[in-house]
């Protein structure tokens, strides 16, 4: 049904316009408690075999929505009601900013991919905090992903992240330092260990000081050299971070300027996951993202050592019931393999 709608109508419309309409519809859903609850009861993962715990948080399933869809925390509950086991909102920056000029979002339909150069368009940390403070009508695990305000120079980056962390860490089930988006000039330089160490240490201090101690993760790019992946992993261990999210979009492509996501990212995303697992074992929670389309992809990531798996681009092609059907397939697969809990699968093929 969605496929038909996509090929007949949606693919001919401006992707960012569709995105904003979708967010508006979901935000409306968020303020309709009865519908939201009904959807949640019907679509959210309820199979106990899917439950996982990571960094002290209990997730109803390992699969969630990656950052960048709900940049302003406008509809996290509605997205949970559609079946995502968690929703990562953001990237939020300390100050509101418009992002790059349009057009900045491009479908690459033949590759089931997307290129974006959005540039962290968002209403800023205080606005996101206001939304996150609203009481939750349905259970939702909400991670908050923070990034650097574009106009802030690299030398003041740590303070800028700290400003966002102070505002948002107390409201987040987990916090993510994003240093890997390709569309903020210089941002990915912050992945260099000598710049990353003081930045993560400063944000960690804030995350540790919240009443519940907010778990802290760092999100990395697929374009890091393998040695740099190892270096970030070592740093995350050294600083006592809770996990690593791998990966963001790649700039290794020949299309429009921006980061490529979706199917072409799959192989490198898995490669980075395997490398991280070999380096850190189960001492950190690994969150795998990049080119996840179906239950086979989720299964592969779990086996390779990811405790949580995320996706975004495949929803553009798969539609609003994507997460729900993926969870249904995952439950079936567990049954078929005679596995009582998805946690038994994690890291099973890792060295
Ligand atoms: C339109 C778009 C916007 C994105 N914005 C962000 C963002 O603001 N912050 C972030 O950490 N990742 C962002 N991402 C990256 C995704 O979270 C994810 O890491 C990447 O798309 C790979 O997953 P996928 O292949 O399932 O889409 C964005 C991706 C897309 C397609």
Describe this structure as you would to a colleague.
The protein is of the alpha/beta class and 351 residues long. The protein is 39% helix and 16% strand. It is built from twelve helices and 13 strands. The protein has helices at 2-8, 15-30, 33-43, 76-81, 125-133, 157-168, 193-208, 226-239, 266-280, 295-304, 313-318, 322-336, and strands at 52-54, 57-59, 63-65, 87-92, 105-108, 113-116, 142-146, 174-178, 216-220, 243-246, 259-262, 285-289, 308-311. The strands form three sheets. An eight-stranded parallel beta sheet has the order 3-13-12-10-9-8-7-4. Helix 6 (157-168) links the parallel strand 7 (142-146) and strand 8. Helix 5 (125-133) packs parallel to helix 6 and helix 8 (226-239) crosses helix 9. The radius of gyration is 19 Å and the shape is globular. The mean pLDDT is 94. The structure holds flavin mononucleotide (FMN). Residues 66-68, 71, 90-91, 105, 114, 116, 118, 120, 145, 178, 181, 219, 248-249, 261-262, 265, 289-292, 311-314 line the site of flavin mononucleotide.
């Amino acid at each position: 049904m969605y496929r038909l709608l996509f090929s007949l109508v949606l693919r001919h419309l401006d992707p960012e316009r569709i995105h904003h309409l979708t967010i508006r519809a979901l935000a409306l859903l968020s303020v309709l408690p009865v519908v939201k609850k009904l959807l949640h009861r019907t679509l959210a993962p309820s199979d106990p075999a899917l439950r996982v715990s990571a960094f002290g948080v209990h997730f109803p399933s390992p699969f969630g929505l990656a950052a960048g869809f709900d940049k302003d925390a406008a509809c996290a509950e509605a997205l949970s009601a559609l079946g995502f086991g968690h929703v990562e909102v953001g990237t939020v920056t300390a100050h509101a900013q418009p992002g790059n000029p349009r057009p900045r979002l491009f479908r690459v339909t033949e590759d089931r991919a997307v290129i974006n150069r959005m540039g962290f368009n968002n209403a800023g940390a205080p606005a996101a905090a206001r939304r996150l403070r609203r009481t939750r009508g349905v259970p939702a695990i909400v991670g908050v992903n923070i990034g650097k305000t574009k106009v802030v120079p690299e030398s003041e980056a740590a303070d800028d992240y700290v400003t966002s962390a102070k505002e948002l860490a107390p409201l987040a089930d987990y916090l993510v330092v994003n240093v890997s988006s390709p569309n903020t000039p210089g941002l990915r330089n912050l992945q260099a260990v000598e710049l990353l160490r003081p930045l993560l240490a400063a944000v960690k201090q804030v995350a540790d000081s919240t009443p519940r101690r907010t778990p802290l993760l760092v999100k990395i790019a697929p374009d890091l050299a393998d040695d740099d992946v190892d270096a970030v992993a070592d740093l995350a261990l050294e600083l006592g971070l809770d996990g690593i999210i791998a990966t963001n979009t790649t700039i290794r492509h020949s299309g429009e300027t921006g980061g490529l996501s979706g199917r072409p990212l799959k192989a490198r995303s898995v490669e980075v996951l395997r490398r991280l697992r070999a380096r850190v074992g189960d001492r950190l929670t690994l969150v795998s993202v990049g080119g996840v389309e179906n239950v086979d992809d989720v299964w592969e990531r779990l086996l390779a050592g990811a405790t949580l798996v995320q996706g975004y681009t495949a929803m553009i092609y798969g539609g609003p019931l994507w997460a729900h059907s993926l969870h249904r397939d995952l439950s079936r697969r567990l049954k078929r393999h005679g596995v009582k809990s998805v946690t038994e699968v994690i890291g099973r093929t890792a060295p």
